[in-house]
Amino acid sequence: MFSRLNQIARHLSRPIPNYLHNSAASSGLSVTTSRAMAQERSKRMINTAACLIIGDEVLGGKTVDTNSAWFAKYCFSLGINLKRVEVIADDESEIIEATRRMSSNYDFVITSGGIGPTHDDITYQSIARAFDLPLVLHEGALEKMKKLSKPHPGQPNFSYDEDTPARRAKLRMIELPYDKNLPDEDQVIFTAEDLWVPINVVNGNIHILPGIPRLFEKMLTGLKPRLVPRLTDPEGKGVYRILFSTPMPESEVAGYLTELSGKVESKGIKVGSYPRWGKSRNTVTLVGRDKDFMESLVPEVESSVKGRRIQVEGEDDDAGSDKDT
Questions:
Q1: Class assignment of domain 17-230?
Q2: What is the distance between the alpha carbons of residues 124 and 207, in angstroms, rounded to a whole number?
Q3: What is the structure's pLDDT at 187?
Q4: HSE (CB half, 13 Å, CA atoms) of 285?
């Protein structure tokens, strides 16, 4: 009894989040101004990104999230700075708070999960509420759905012409947060000819994607041509990473790496050191855009860490004991 009362007291003592901090109403912005900002946001240069993974199944350990790791590599390849990855529950208030905050703080935001036909797939409706938008059945997506979606073996009599629970559930997947005053092509993006699932873009920079890794990866790959012109590096070359393998413990190379980091910081190059528990060799990295300068550092780094450059971490592992981390 007392335990339960303590739980309630802790819950009531938590500060109430300001879910309206980024809405037009709370900020005093007119709807016209808010829409203009969304349009501007959809065209601005992309320097930073954030990833929001939505799903009770991830937090409960039922499903392993691989999408954020794939998205991190995707951003790295394009030279986009991925600044934040969050995993939240299928909870409307959390989705509202997170999407408003991320939309305000980062140039390119993606969400993953919660857009299926079941009762707990609430991403669309939550994001619609976050930005005061209606949910609209998108006719173009409906036509693609009818053309490309194959009947499920368990629904042999399914029909788009009959108002059934199955039909209503299916159509929920294309009832999108939608602003009728903004161009359709900026809000609903089909990235593959053989997919009816669109990327729904809200508030100019939130890109809503499915949680299924195969679809998530295919759709973001198809989105790349639209992103490249908005990158700091318009050729989409991204950044470079040089790996070094060293047999020395981290504590032994820490002094040199600190000195090296100070020397290359002005060039926008980051120095990394990564222990590999249970392996005989650790990893040192250089990450940056100035490829020629980074290449010039290779001999010095190899000598200073008593190691060598490698292409893939672990390629020169040999049997060894745990080392000093």
A1: alpha beta
A2: 11
A3: 97
A4: 13
